[in-house]
Design a protein that fits this description.
Keywords: Membrane, Notch signaling pathway, Transmembrane, Transmembrane helix. This is Gamma-secretase subunit PEN-2. The chain is built from 4 helices and no strands. 67% of the residues lie in helices and 0% in strands.
Amino acid sequence: MNLERLPNEEKLSLCRKYYLGGFAFLPFLWLVNVVWFFREAFVKPAYTEQLQIKTYVKRSALGLLLWVAVLTTWITIFQHFRAEWGEVGDYLSFTIPLGIP
């Protein structure tokens, strides 16, 4: 999508939709929001909607970092303790590895 062709009001609306969509357990939308709107928020000359776009981009980045931290922590804990959890660890696994861990 070429953001240069959109009016500033539509940019703000799109940025807001991606920001709110991230709360539906879709942190990828926050990543897209940060990547697409970073230049609009921090590089382009000032315009009226820019302050709100900056807020959405900053909050999207913060939400994305929080998701990455939580997911990384869970993956690390799960990989480390899955075998010790016994049957519960097996039920949480998509595939059950064979052999002794």
